Amino acid sequence: MNLNTPRLTSLALAAAMAFAYSTFGDTPDEEVYLAPESFVAESFDGASPKPSVLWITNELKPDIQKILGHDYPALRVRYWKDKERTAWILEEIGKVKPITVGIVVEDGRITRLKVLIYRESHGWEVKHSFFTNQFTDAELTEKLRLNKNIDGISGATLSVNALKRLGRLALFLHQQALR
């Protein structure tokens, strides 16, 4: 076996970069449609309020688990609030990678839902407004479901379901933030 040191170094560097990309989420196949900070600014007419924090308490965990089907992966959630409007930057796994979504809730209804960063190889169709506009005016029922039907996209079922869960979660968190 011929050990070519520069070649081994290149392979080691490539492996390290692949590990770093997979670990830190900055994958080469990541598509950023709108930077989260731009989403927040747009949601408040260019004047982003200071971020606030909602702690995921033991009281909230069962309902969040019911909405997501798993525990929330953090102890707190950052959000932005101005009067009755809140904006949330949330992530949920589609198939194997997180989808970053911005959601604005006002008066208990979703007023805007936008896919900000998409990392999956399939299901990217959920980024289109024909799909995300279905969430407009959606409210949360007492059973923690959306009060309106969201049509799926063939071949993007896991991404569609991830966005439905995030819509429900944003509505639930909005209720908690306004308490």
TrEMBL record:
GO cellular component: membrane
Chloroplast listed as a keyword: no
Domain of life: Bacteria
Coiled-coil region: none
Annotated signal sequence range: 1-20
Protein name, as recorded: FMN-binding protein
Pfam family, any one: FMN_bind
Every FMN-binding domain range: 94-174
GO molecular function annotations of the record: FMN binding
Organism: Pelagicoccus enzymogenes
InterPro entries: FMN-bd
UniProt keyword annotations, A-Z: Signal
